[in-house]
Specification:
alpha+beta; 2 domains; five-stranded antiparallel sheet; 10 helices; Beta-Lactamase; Arc Repressor Mutant, subunit A
Length: about 280
Amino acid sequence: MIESMTGPNLDRPLRTALPLLRQATGVDGAMAGPVSLGGRRLVVTGLHGMLTSTMLGLVATPGVGAGGQALQMARPFAVDDYLHSKTVSHHFDRKVQIEQIYGVLAVPVRVGRDIRAVLYGLSRTASPLGDRVLDIASSVAAMVARELAVEIEVAHRMHVIAQHQHREDSSGPGGVDPREIYEELIAIARATSDRSVRDRLEALSGRLSPSVGPAVDCAPRLTGREREVLAQIALGHTTFEVAELLSIMPTTVKSYLKNIMGKLGTRNRVETLRAARRAGLVS
């Protein structure tokens, strides 16, 4: 994997997506791999429907091979006759021959502003891949992006928890409120459709819940992320705009907003902003 041992596990959702990609597009084989932060290096870590394991561990950089083209252009790339194409670098021709590959598509998986993975679809026939296949593959990539965003957020929260526990073990003053971590984990769990990720989040929340307890005062107490979401909504941004600005999923924004409304006792955005201003949470 590209990420460190404490980083997000991007391989699992990528491997899960490969059979779906084959079924949805009709390609003969599929593979995928995470991209290092900065988009400079891709390593293939998952295969499905392949004849051999020769593609496992393939490393591509921007402009190298079909995946490298997708990285460089930051958009889907396809070629119908890979071995005779003038638009690819041909670094991997031997591997392509071993796998009897004819056509290749590569679709970047973008989380926020970063490309975090690439999905490949591989055809062993001369049938053109076409725009329809690329559109379907892009839809699968969008679904994968949502799951990767969850994995990245989970890894971040786990890192914060580990730091907090380390500070406690060292008898130093803690700079992170456990209640904030707990409520953010609950918000992320509600936003993901992946059962295994949701179970992990709920288990982490359970580890924190005995120590956080109820708020000690009657004033609404928002987490740092909830305050960020509320501030962006107060500026007039839509759910999707808030998600883009904060590099989180739209469903997570909705979950945070639901939590805010519950704490303020409101039913919609207008009531929420009015109550937030009365409470001095936004100007």
